[in-house]
Fold:
Amino acid sequence: MLQTVISKNNYQDSINLMLLTNKINDFDNVSSSQIMMGTDANKDILQNTDLLTDEAKEASPNDMMIVVDSEDENVMDDVLPAIDDFLNDLASEDSGETQNTTATTWDEAMEQLPDANVALFSIPGEYAAPEMEKALKNNLHVFSFTDNVPLEGEVRLKNLAHDKGLMMMGADCGTGIISSIPIAFTNVVSPGNIGIVGASGTGIQEVTTIIDRLGGGVVHAIGTGGRDLSEKVGATTMMDAIVGLENHEPTDVICIISKPPEKSVRDQVVQLLQSVSKPVVAIFLGEKPENHEGQVYLAHTLEETAKIAVDLANEETIKPNYMDTIEKPNVNVLPENQVVKGLYSGGTLANEAGMLISEALDLGGVVKEEGYILKAKGYDVIDLGDDIYTQGRPHPMIDPDVRIKKIQEYAQDPQTGVILLDVVLGYGAHEDMAGALIPAINEAQETAKADGRDLHFVATVCGTRQDPQDYDDSVKRLEEAGVFVKESNEKAVRFALQLKGITLTDEDKEVVPYKGETVDVPAVSDKIDELLNTKPSIINIGLQSFNQSITDFGGKSVQFNWRPRANGNKKMIRILDALEEYDDQIAEENQKVTDKIQNAQPFLVDVVTANTVIPEFNEQKTLLHAGPPIQYNEMTSPMQGSCVGAALYEGWADNEEDAIKLLESGEVRFIPCHQVQAVGPMGGITSGSMPVTVIQNRLTNNQAYCILNEGIGKVLRFGAYSQEVIDRLDWIRDTLGPTLSKALQTTKEGVNLSVLIARSITMGDEFHQRNIAASMNFLKEMAPLIVDLDIPQNEKQEVIQFLADTDQFFLNIMMATGKAIVDGARKDTKGTVVTTMTRNGRDFGVRIAQTKDEWHIAPVNTPKGLYFTGFSEEDGNPDFGDSSITETIGVGGMAMVAAPGVTRFVGAGGFQDALDVSNEMEKITLSHNPTFTIPTWDFKGTCLGIDIRKVVETGITPLINTGIASNEAGVGQVGAGTVRAPLGCFEKALEAYAKDFGIDVDE
Structure:
């Protein structure tokens, strides 16, 4: 039985999740499990292991998928706490390691480490190329531990790096040393005068550790990635690194490590090597050179490579043969039917073993199929780091599980006489691989003994005495367990062959002249020269543990807690990347929009009946509604109820039944408020006879309108339409509206709303759920004016009392203010700033400056929050209303920190929650509005300019404070809470914006 939990927006490193999966798989009540991020590649893994559930299919790449196969229906009661404990422990360790030097964006990372010159990547390959391109464009060398980068992407990145004078190390660059700083999966090697360039894996580790144990030292080990010497890549990184080492004064010897390259590429590399001034030792693994050529000493094995390099570094004469005599085993030779099996965690070590065994037995050379390096006549050599073994699992250098299972499998096979192993030490590797393997080795020996046969284990420990693990102790414990331990992989293979009675030798080599042409060695770029002559400063993007070796040995690093942009939506990532080419232009256009928002001059100048300022009311029966366009039969129940109430109020029908028939007949036209410079709360229903505030934005000379707040109780905006509701609307039309209008006419310029808002935000309003300060400040402005009017005293009393009783009265004024501000801001401007957010109970719609009146819509969400007694979430109506115009200008939910008291009312908690919300909203806006400063936010201004690019990139959508209407017309408000704008409308807006730039969004 499959059980699934999706942990939303909880990005974790894949290696940590692999280790966590192993931990959960050890539970007695778990048959199998997978814990991984919701990327397409990971979903393919789940599909291939029959663990892909419907819930997992819907996960985003930033969601953590927890899929467990168990017969225990309560298994998650055990699994979920264990996952929490594991991740909390990681967080605690990481906090100690990184010492608060963490970043969540490139800008933050560059700001924290302004002298950064390297970006170290260990993120999923399917998202890596654009991020690496960004690093290169920021003039950072790239070290890509990340693999699975498409070949065409690697070619493009390496060409870009070369053109910029940088190095692109990788992809699939497992280990490196830069200025004696160990990087990624690497050993601690003594500093010295040998500079190495290699594919970067256990080949470099084997050579560098042998150099160290021979008393030599390495200054640089530059990884190129396994495909660098392919025909398509053309050895770009290797040749740039060779040029760098040639011009690096402390490097006396250049060492090249490579798997067999394309001949044309090999010729180019050798030509360059023959042209440098420094001695060179090179191994093209798989080749068996008969001689050295010119100044390039050609090695056959990794041990020979290390020995030649040390002799060259010590200016000693090169020997004709470096293959030592090794002692013969003091055991019986294995019978004919028993063979050697190699179980390697290191790919290059496996290749070397396969090569040597094949040469000794004439087995036809190495192969590359399903993880096998050699598979002939019973002789198997397996690279357990191959993709077939590591998909969804940790690398065997980290986790011994796969190798233990293979040991158990081969121990059962009567043909198995010898099992060859590598034990790789160093940063990133298992903390005690020898200790982890010994129980399996002992069990295998007992299995063979019970079957009446011998089973020998031969191992090499790849490491140094400075590594975090104890090299000598690892060797000692393996030997105590009956393992034959040799100083190198070559010696281990030769010893294993001697157990079969086969002695492997090598022919002497002499130096012969190089007959090819040489070239002029190019000058080294300034950036590569700087990299090779200083300690690196590294932005670490991915696995946090990679910081440790850097900082332990004097380098600097900052942790970039990366997660896929745009929730992993590759289309959106592609659009965001393409738009980066226009950053300066977009910034200039956005500045015009935000300047208009910041400098707006909104004044309340009048209250008039809607049909006097909105001519559409005078053409036919017309109602305005909240949100993007919608027809009566598509509206939710409370919005339909508001329409019924408006029809009764206007006298279009005498009763509810006739009003519904009228509205269903198509005789009434429905127009979005936003289409006619208006806004409306909740249902937003506005009819021609209703009074509206007139807000004039004197900066841009435009006006906006909103109906007056109805107060509390049964109200039209929540879908009520009883006689009580109609009577109040009549009073608002006949008394409240005219009184406010007359009062405003006695002023010279109306009410300066910027001043009133600025004052009220310092008093704890956020202008969506909390308007009490602004409503009182408004009353303070209006009461003296009303008192002086020549109208009946009872009307003055009624109006002033109504204003005093209506804490939310200013909300409608604020809505019209927001409308006036954004309509002015989007006049004659372009850019990515959101200029409208609204909802109609079905669709959430946004507009941006660039696309003017075009709606970008997605399905609305239902608010979450606190419900009044007797109601629950089941009673809540989907989100509706134009009041989210407040969030568009940076108040409301965007300014939650200004009104921490609101957080309790909407069910969000306390002050810290309010602060967290505003800090989060800050991430999706362009700047701050100094006109409206917030004391509880260290006097920062409200958020200014919601940027659709930031919304899409971060996956953070605006949070809106809102009342919750009943989903049944006439019931009214049933609670208050918050609701998130749906991401989809911002993605659609971004797509439309990109099309304006001629970007092919469907590429």
User: Anything to note?
Assistant: Residues 339-498 form a domain with the Rossmann fold fold (CATH 3.40.50.261). The first strand starts at residue 2 and ends at 7.
